[in-house]
Amino acid sequence: MFQPIIPASGLTGWVFLNATMERQTEVFNKSPELTRDTDYFEQNIGNISTAEELVSDRRLLRVALGAFGLEEDINSRALIEKILSEGTVDDDALANKLTDERYKDLAEAFGFDRLLGPRTTQSGFGKEIVDQFRARSFEVAVGDQEQALRLALNAKRELPVIALEGDSEDAKWFGIMGTGPLRKVLETVLGFPPGFGQLDLDRQLVEFQDRASSQLGLTSIDDLADPEKLDKLIERFLLMDQISTGSSMSSNSIALTLLQSASNFR
Q: Pick from 218, 214, 221, 256: which is nearest to 239 by CA?
């Protein structure tokens, strides 16, 4: 499978990756292994009507889970079947109880609990999931070389979606807090110490909101629908990550860039 070209870490790698994204993803999506998986999914998902049928087909399940960043759960068939079969309509459904929002997104997407039947038989459903799978698979391939860049790509894709949802401000924050990759980005950007996640959830929410306001000038998660503000947040994440992991940039250079980044949020 084609491996993305990442010539450097941090901001340098990010700039190169964005400049070459269209061509790199085009080549990546033509990889034989990826093409076989996506073609198989589109050709066969319409025949699936139950969660049991889906988890029994490992090739279909691999694409389904990969589309939501849950590829590591490929061997947890019983758990995934329960999440899918219960769906999200019932408040007591397992997906609604899990802190990781990706399980809820997975269950909602397939809709095996819908009275009118699952979405698997709807026109265009296969392509919808395949497109997500391709995007996530590219991010995974990037992460195999530079994990911070994978997290940055995920944040760039996911945060605007959350910002534009009709949920309350607190619900959007809880969504971010409950999604591991997004939480990692925001915790890094806001400089939270190890062990912060052990605090009471309501206390965590207040801290996230206060620091986002004081450090980034964000009045609402909705602000991240603005591409410029989102880009500045991602740049700050990559700089903070460089500080925590060690960097070829001088500490003074990183500090200056962070200050400039912070001022751009105002």
A: 256
